[in-house]
Amino acid sequence: MKAMVVKAAKAPITLEERPKPKAGPGQVVIKVKACGVCHSDVAMQQGAFPFGTFPIVLGHEVAGIVDEVGPGVKWPKVGDRVGMPWLYDSCGHCDLCVRGDEVMCPEMTVTGVNRDGGYQEYMLAPAAYVGPIPDGLDFADAGPLMCAGITVFNGIRRAGYKPGAKVAVMGLGGLGSMAVQYASALGARVGVLSTSSDKAQEAKKLGAELFINTKKDDVVKSLQAWDGGADIIVATAPNPEPMTQAFPGLAADGTLVVLGVGPGLITTSPMDLVSQRRRLMGSPSGSRHDLRDTLKFSLHNKVLPQIVKMPLEDAGKAHELLHEGKIVGRAVLVME
Q1: 0.85 exceeded by pTM
Q2: Ramachandran region of residue 247, left (φ > 0), alpha (ψ -120 to 50) or beta?
Q3: Number of structural domains, the chain?
């Protein structure tokens, strides 16, 4: 089978011919149909994750069909449509795991970071951690929902979303475009903060009523003029400076939820925090339960990613285009 492999930090992605994996106890083999390309994959290739291991097959936005099940596996069955997200597995017994927050387990392993992921034709996965893909979701659409989708959908919910709230999305890339769609489908009033003025029409098309050009407009004044400020700011771009800039634009009891991770610090004054009871929080991907919620909500509300399909062999090219900001939406590697 074909596998796209990164042998060491900052090494190129190279094609290898490998034997098809065999499912052991509690495992399944997924015939990969599609795998989304995430900024985290680029970061892993560049050696940004000290907990990562090499050589590695990247890819944690996996969608495919169960090709084989190992001993003891009662679900899923051969032929079932399943996906594999960021969370590969966890210890299963710590307080975080038993309360359903296994994505924060200190012993969790990560798909495409600690275990070979979806940049290959077949991948091995723990049966207990795959997610069922509903009929009606195309594999290429389902792939990005395994990370981009669950990350923003779960982040908005964790930030305390209430129907009719004003949600401002920072950045309109792969995560940001999904966040605008989810917030709109949830019934929010949506705004977009972007450094690119040419994103205004795209933001409106996705459902935003407000667009703020962060290079030209006074971000705080623009947000506060939006009926008193944003109830939730969803920070999808991995740059802390715009987060610092926008924080005072939150309404009373508002929350800035950080999804994009990058170098630097987010700073704010105690007065901006205390006087309006604002919150600053982070939100990781999500649990197995969150993934199922995301997939069901996406199907029933027609929330789908903007995708650019590319063949598996173009994984390296996809990384280059993503790093250069030349991918609109999400690149998806397709096997057929």
Answers
A1: yes
A2: alpha
A3: 2
